[in-house]
Amino acid sequence: MESTVYTLLERIFQTVFPLVAIVSVGYFYARWRNTDMSIANRINIDVFCPALIFSVMSAKSFDLPTYSMLAIGAAVVVLGSGLLLLPVCRLMGVKGKTFLPPMMFNNSGNLGIPLLVLAFGEQALPAAVVLFLVENLLHFTVGTYMLDHRTNPLNVLRMPMIIATIAGLLVSSFNVTLPTTAQVPIDMLGQIAIPLMLFALGVRMTSVDFTHWRVGVWGAILAPLSGIAVALMLYPILNLPTEYFAYLLIFGALPPAVLNYMIAERYNQEPHLVASIVLIGNIGSLVTIPVVLAFVL
Fold first, then answer.
1. Fewer CB in a 10 Å sphere around the end CB: N or C, the chain?
2. Rounded distance, CA 52 to CA 130, Å?
3. Which parts of the chain span the membrane according to its record (predicted)?
C-alpha cells in the first residue's frame, strides 16, 4: 500500500514539477529583468502553435473520428461551465461578461498540453491538441460574441491555428507524405510552442493583481469545480474510454486561460478584475491539479 502511494506521489511530482519549474524560470527572470512577452506571444500564436498543430494533425497516426466524442465533451464542458455558474454571478454581484469567460475558457494551451503529455506520455499529444483547439475555437467565437455581439464568428477562419488544423487534416486524410526537408523544420518549430507557453505564463504571473482577491479566490474554486462537475455528468452519456475521460476531467479542472485577460482588455470589460480571476486561478491550480491527477492516475 505504501509503495503504491509513493509511486502515485512520485508520478504526480514528475508531472507537475517540470511545469512549475519552467513557469518559475519565467517568473523569476521577469522579476530580475523587465520582460515584454507580447512579441514572443504573438509569434507563438502565429507560428509555433500552428506548427505544433500541423505536425500533430498531419501525422498518419492521427484519426479525427477517434477524438470526435472527446471534442464534443470538451465543448460541453466549456459551455456547460458557463451555464452552471450563470446564477452565481448574481449572488456574487459581478457581471456575467466579466466572470463567466474565465470560468469557461481554460488554460488548455499553456498548461493543458504539457500537463497531459507529462502525465500520459506523447500518445496524449493529439488529444491535448484537440482539446486545445476546441477551447480556442469557442473562445474566439462564443467568447468574443459574449463581449461584443457585433463580432463576426467567421473571423476565426483567418487564425493561423485554424488554417494549420485544416491543412494538417487534409494532409492526413489524403495520406500525403511531406518531404523530410519540410517536415523536420515544422516539427522543430512546433517543439518551441509548449515551453514558450509555460515561460510566458511565468512572466505573466509577475503582474498578479490582488485588488479583487475575493472574486479571484472564488474563481480559483469555481472554475475547476464547474468543469469537473460537467465532465462527471458527461461520463455515462459519452461512454468515453477510461483514458479519454481522464483527459476530459483534467481539461475541466484547468484554471482560466491568460487569454481571457487580453480579450477583456481589448473590449474594456473590467480587465483588472479579470486579471485577478485569471492569475489567482492559475496559482490555485497548484493545489487542484495534483488532486485531480491523484484521482485519474
1. N
2. 12
3. 12-30, 68-92, 159-178, 184-203, 215-238, 244-261, 273-296
